[in-house]
Structure formats: structure tokens, C-alpha cells
């Protein structure tokens, strides 16, 4: 072994957290998104209370932890999920109650306090949701929803990025990246 002290200006190694080492091909910077499907999601913090533009109680569920069912992707946090108490058009249901019921909750809330109390009581209990991919261009607001609309790789998986059709030129592609998003909360076992 040569004497490393003879190498001038040699820096000490950058510190590495070997307990959480990013092996090549593993996680690290490149987050592998779960394919579209139904997953268990764990609310880990009390929901943030707000209201919709038209005045309904709305909560932001952030973050929801996707519980990996023995799969290669890591625990992922899904942010910016909002539900409110306004009825879906032509449906005897609303997004907030969908969320509560996806936990197996069988209460019948009628007031904002009851909805809010139920959501707080369900922190730490898994919900069930359809999760899909979504990419958003901050510059032109172009949105692509749905994993199957992303470019397909040769191995049958989908590329987790897409060129913004409005902001890309032939020489200069503007890439936008997919995130996992909740499409709908569904009752357990569905
Ligand atoms: Zn764009």
C-alpha cells in the first residue's frame, strides 16, 4: 500500500451514514413510485383544518405514509391530500366521509366538530386509497394524471417523468416528475 500522506491536498472522506446507506440500484435519490393501485396509508399527524372556497370544512392530511406491502419501494410520504364535507355531485357521499370510512369507521357524523373529531381519532390508523401518479408543471400548470399516460420503458414499467408539452422545445426538454397522489379513498377490502 502506498503512503497516502504523500498525496498532497487529500481531503478526508465525506461522512456517510452507513446505517442508511444508499446502495447503487436501491433507493437513494431516485424514488421508485408505487404502481397505480390500492394501498394502506397511515396518517401520522393531526389533520390541518381549513375550508374550501365555498365554505365547507376541509382538512389537509399531511403526510400520509404509504405502507409498503413487502415491495421494493420505500415508505413514501404522500402530501397535499385534502378532503372536505361537500357532497360529490349526484352522490350520497363526500370526500371527508370517504376518508373516514376507508379506515373502517362506521360513525354517522353530522357536524363539523364530529367530522373533525373523527379524523383526529384516526391518526395512526391506516386508511385505504387508490394511489396513482401525477406530474405538474409549475410554469404552465400542465398536469398529467395517471401512471399509464407516462412514457413506457422497455421492461413494461413507466418512466417517472414526462416532457412538458408546453414548455419543452426540441433542443431543450422541460422534464416534470411524477408524484404519488391519492385518487380516492375506498372502504377496506374493496
Ligand atoms: Zn409547462
Can you characterise this structure?
The structure is a single chain. With 190 residues, the chain is mainly β. The protein has one domain (33-185). Helices cover 9% and strands 28% of the residues. The protein is built from 2 helices and 10 strands, in the order E-E-E-E-E-E-H-H-E-E-E-E. The chain has helices spanning 95-101, 112-121, and strands spanning 37-43, 48-51, 57-61, 64-66, 76-78, 81-84, 127-136, 143-145, 161-163, 175-185. A hairpin with a 6-residue loop joins strand 7 (127-136) and strand 8. Bound molecules: zinc ion.
3D shape? extended
Distance between the termini: 63 Å
Give the integer mean of the pLDDT values: 88
Please state the CA-atom Rg, rounded to the nearest Å. 22 Å
Helix content: under 10%
Q: Secondary-structure element order, as H and E?
A: EEEEEEHHEEEE
What is the number of domains? 1
Ranges where pLDDT stays below 50 over 5 or more residues in a row are: 25-29
Number of helices: 2
Query: How many strand elements?
Result: 10
Strand content: 25-35%
Major sheet: 7 strands, antiparallel
| Ligands present | zinc ion
The chain-level structural class is: mainly beta
Question: What does this entry show, briefly?
Answer:
With 190 residues, this protein is mostly beta strands. It has two helices and ten strands.
Keywords for this entry:
single chain, 190 residues, mainly beta, seven-stranded antiparallel beta sheet, three-stranded antiparallel beta sheet, 10 strands, extended, binds zinc ion
